Amino acid sequence: MARTTRQRAAVAAVFDQLEGFHSAQEVHARLRSAGDGVGLSTVYRAVQALADDGELDSIRTDSGEALYRRCSTQHHHHLVCRSCGRTVEVAGPAVEQWADRVAGEHGFADVSHTMEIVGTCAGCRARD
Amino acid sequence: MARTTRQRAAVAAVFDQLEGFHSAQEVHARLRSAGDGVGLSTVYRAVQALADDGELDSIRTDSGEALYRRCSTQHHHHLVCRSCGRTVEVAGPAVEQWADRVAGEHGFADVSHTMEIVGTCAGCRARD
DNA sequence: GCGCACGTGAGAATCGTTGTCAACTGAAGG
DNA sequence: CCTTCAGTTGACAACGATTCTCACGTGCGC
To answer: Is the Cβ pair A106, B116 closer than 8 Å?
Structure first.
């Protein structure tokens, strides 16, 4: 299992070239316009396989779309505008420590966490 | 606008009775089995209207489903065991403040946030 | 090379959600 | 009370992201 095929290599390559989060649809379109014909189903499978192997990190946008990124980059959280969807990546060492400590106090180990901050950005407030 | 109808009251009532996060589909099913006939579209609209008014908070599950909860009750987070599902509610003033501060620094207002901490609880670790 | 289990891809199916539109109904004003 | 009408409803269609299906293709160990 985990055979190395042209298609999987192509999907993995996209995430090597691109920073940040990208949807399966976007990867598919990108490969298609680059001349590499890779089926949509295959892109989804490849992306999920990579995520299972811990090579990609995934989040969900407000509209329910799944986004993936190469997950080597250090941990951070997302600050999302509820109106325009603009997203800012924020790092929070304090939060990481707090989560670990609180979990430890309750006897939990191998702790990970997710956090999302939602608000209205300056631009959208001005616009109303 | 914002007329008070039987349907909207029914949807709001569900969140008064129930703790935690619930999906629109779940609310719809619950109302239906309770004898209150409310259309699915209406549930979606009511839930979104309530979220817009700041009465409900929303997050997305891993599978892309939208969940809502009454956001008046005092804020807390969940510490979940990835093995047995045991859940502990934890309060974290430090995190609230951090989230507000970081959001403010980026020009965001009306900030809310969700956080979930996942780990393996003492019992499950001992069991393996 | 051979075989075959795993991988592929086009299209159908699914699922949550949103749009459509004719019928309905609060509530403001006679 | 009764009218009026804009906001609301709900059955159903449409939608977009994702997953499933299945006949065909292809790494890779022999």
So the answer is: no
Nearest CA in chain A to B110: A119
What's the whole-model pTM score? 0.69
| Residue pLDDT tens, chain B, 128 long | 567 888 899 999 998 888 778 999 999 999 988 887 789 999 999 999 988 887 888 888 878 889 998 865 567 787 877 667 677 778 777 788 888 888 888 888 888 787 878 778 888 777 66
Chain-chain contact of A117 with B94 (C-beta, under 8 angstroms)? no
Task: Tell me phi and psi for residue B81, to 5 degrees.
Answer: -85, 125
Q: A67: which DSSP letter?
A: E
